[in-house]
Specification:
heterodimer; A: 422 residues; alpha/beta; 10-stranded mixed sheet; 9-stranded mixed sheet; 23% helix; B: 261 residues; Rossmann fold; 6-stranded mixed sheet; 9 helices; 35% helix
């Protein structure tokens, strides 16, 4: 990208330009299919602005919540790296971070360091919704991760995104840009946490560019407090022969939206997405999954499970889009919901748009309750009804947890699910 | 040890058990045979405590009234039912399930819970009994199991739970001859003076492997004839037609139900 083009892009991505865009396109409404089940009255209470000072006392409550994983850790609070809570001493060779010690100065610099995702960013900035525009405007420098070609990293890179109410506005924006060069393999864990008891929100955006034959395990755990709204958007572009395994755990917040878009751009790319949402109280947990098959012989899997108790609502809006010429596409999608209360609600919508021949596409959705016969079976073995219920719920949920490759994280999730049973 | 007196059970107003009497002594094995729809499975699940039946009469185990108990309380009291159709429970690990079950009844009985290592020894011993491979413990309960594996898993659970009364509901259904032999030898190994069994079956075949002390014929919700194992052989030859074709009240000299003493 030339200097002039970079400068032009930086100008387009400026807060002023974004606010103008929002004025033109407006905020999403219930009439937008992808925002149909969002609590719009709550979203209207979110206020945005540049990163401000954070109350350090409030922040200390997150220290016990962060999963303890091996490998480097970068903690981002309201879009700004928290150096004291981060530890990048264990950063493997071949990995660059635009974090303290290797910091980029602003959007223009980040684009220069990260040219591929810059193109994505620029392209998306024109079509995105108002919340993406706000993220572009107020997300600050963000964090960039660049993995050089041919690297195989054993330990995960852990990004912790923390939101808390600060200053004149209640919602923070954070950016994460990941570039994995050809043939590299890496695990990246994104943990979303929150602090403070005031109503607040987080708006995070992650862009991922995978080179040919790159492999990424991307684990996203959202567990912000119930006084927060969480809006998360991930955009992945995959090169030929690359392999993505994404595991999304949508647990906390009053309203949490995990949008995850995968663009299978290179031949033979594979994307395996699965997730679990576990709602209680009046939570609304929203999954917006879009997989685009834009090249030949790509494979995609979507397998999402929801457990919904009390008056919670689960949303699964999953798209498989097969573009013209994407022959040899092999795509499957499933969404299974377990309702634990007659006031809980599951909304599941598969969207298939197939514009190529020679395509194998399957989808299925279920909404059910705890199996009476299984309850009886367990009870005949002496297991009390409460315990039997917990076993069945955990059994259902565990099918989304068991193949998380990091034991410490599996344990963290299991404890998080178990704790709430008490 | 088990006394069943005038047991009735109906579902949605339709009577299925119509006054069943049965007495089982310590260490005895009783076979209950009968045509389809005679109430065999209903009897088993009435003993185990399944919801949905309107139940009358009395059932006591070691002098304790079972009918007022929840299924888990009956398990703690020593009742075990082997299911005709064991339930698949994806996501629940077999070992965790077994240990939870065993510790649940131990807790209910005021006994100390068994630790992971000690439990493993118990589980391995039970698995050897039914010729199960070790990796079996790490699979989900019955999920994707073959018919034979499911039935072996039932006997494995029985071996772990060490019940006072085992009720085996059509344990032979869906088994090939090899699996039947394994299951039956597991059951036989678990026979003992402190454990009584009710073996429910449609066919005499199972009783070639598990030789009962008594055989009862259940027809239309009542036990209509009782005898020793030769009764099963007679049924094999003659079928149930004799019992089904005429009204029971007209049967001259109808034997008293319950085990002959």
């Amino acid at each position: 990208m030339t200097t002039a083009a970079t400068a032009a892009l930086a100008s387009e991505l400026s807060p002023e330009a974004q606010l103008e865009r929002i004025a033109a396109i407006g905020y999403p409404t219930k009439r937008d299919e992808a925002w149909r089940y969002a609590p719009h009255a709550t979203l209207h209470q979110l206020s945005f602005g540049p990163s401000g000072a954070v109350d350090t006392d409030v922040l200390s409550e997150i220290d016990d919540q962060i999963p303890a994983l091996d490998g480097p850790r970068i903690v981002v609070v309201n879009g700004v790296v928290d150096e004291a809570r981060s530890d990048v001493t264990a950063l493997p060779e071949g990995v660059d971070l635009s974090t303290p010690g290797h910091r980029v100065g602003g959007v223009a610099d980040r684009l220069a360091v990260h040219p591929d995702s810059a193109v994505e960013l620029a392209a998306d900035a024109f079509v995105a919704d108002a919340f993406v525009a706000l993220n572009v405007a107020f997300g600050g420098d963000g964090v960039g991760i660049h993995v050089a070609p041919g690297r195989h990293l054993d330990a995960p890179i852990h990004i912790v995104m923390v939101s808390t109410s600060a200053g004149t506005h209640n919602t923070s924006c954070s950016k994460l840009a990941i570039q994995i060069d050809a043939g590299s393999s890496v695990t990246i864990v994104e943990t979303k946490l929150g602090a403070g008891t005031e109503f607040s929100g987080g708006n995070t955006r992650t862009t991922i560019s995978m080179g040919d034959n790159a492999t990424l395990d991307h684990i996203v755990v959202q567990d912000v407090p119930s006084n927060q709204v969480h809006l998360s958007r991930t955009e992945v572009t995959q090169g030929a022969g690359s392999e993505l395994r994404a595991r999304l755990f949508n647990l906390g917040a009053t309203y949490s939206r995990l949008q995850y878009d995968v663009h299978l751009a290179g031949e033979g790319a594979r994307a395996d997405l699965s997730g679990l949402y576990f709602g209680r109280g009046d939570q609304t947990l929203d999954q917006q999954i879009n997989v685009i098959h834009a090249a030949e012989n790509c494979t995609s899997r979507q397998a999402f499970r929801g457990v919904l108790d009390d008056e919670s609502t689960g949303v699964f809006n999953g798209a498989i889009e097969v573009r013209p010429g994407a022959n040899g596409t092999d795509a499957e999608q499933s969404n299974d919901n377990l309702l634990l209360s007659n006031r809980a609600e599951a909304n599941t919508q598969p969207r298939l748009e197939i514009l190529a021949d020679d395509v194998a596409c399957k989808h299925g959705a279920t909404v059910g309750q705890l199996d009476d016969e299984a309850m009886y079976y367990l009870r005949t073995r002496g297991i009390a009804a409460d315990e039997a219920r917990r076993l069945l719920i955990n059994g259902f949920a565990d099918q989304a947890v068991h193949d998380v490759g990091i034991e410490a994280l599996r344990t963290w999730i299991a404890q998080r699910l178990g704790h709430d049973d008490e | 040890m088990l006394h069943v007196k005038d047991l009735t059970a109906s579902i949605g107003g339709t009577p299925i058990l119509k006054g069943l009497d049965l007495d089982i002594g310590e260490g005895e094995v009783h076979a209950i045979m009968g045509p389809n729809g005679s109430g065999k499975s209903t009897f088993a699940h009435t003993l185990a405590g399944r919801d949905g039946y309107e139940v009358g009469g009395t059932v006591t185990l070691d002098g304790v009234d079972l009918l007022e108990m929840t299924p888990e309380q009956r398990a703690a009291a020593g009742v075990f039912i082997g299911f005709q159709y064991p339930v698949e429970i994806p996501g629940v690990n077999n070992m965790y399930f077994l240990r939870t079950a065993l510790n649940s009844v131990r807790r209910a009985r005021g006994e100390t819970e068994i630790g992971a290592r000690d439990f493993l020894a118990v589980a391995y011993e039970a698995m050897d009994l039914v010729e199960m491979k070790r990796d079996f413990l790490n699979r989900s309960v019955n999920a994707g199991f073959s018919g034979g594996e499911k039935k072996r898993n039932e006997i494995l659970q029985m071996a772990v739970m060490q019940p006072r009364l085992a009720v085996l509901d059509e344990t032979d259904s869906g088994l090939d001859i090899d699996a039947l032999r394994v299951v039956a030898s597991g059951v036989n190994a678990l026979r003992g003076p402190d454990r009584s069994m009710i073996v429910i079956t449609h066919y005499q075949r199972l009783l070639e492997y598990i030789k009962p002390d008594f055989v009862h014929v259940l027809v239309d919700g009542r036990i209509v004839e009782s005898g020793d194992h030769t009764l099963a052989l007679r049924l094999e030859d003659e079928g149930y037609a004799d019992f089904v074709n005429h009204g029971l009240d007209d049967v001259p000299g109808r034997p008293l139900s319950g085990a002959p003493r």
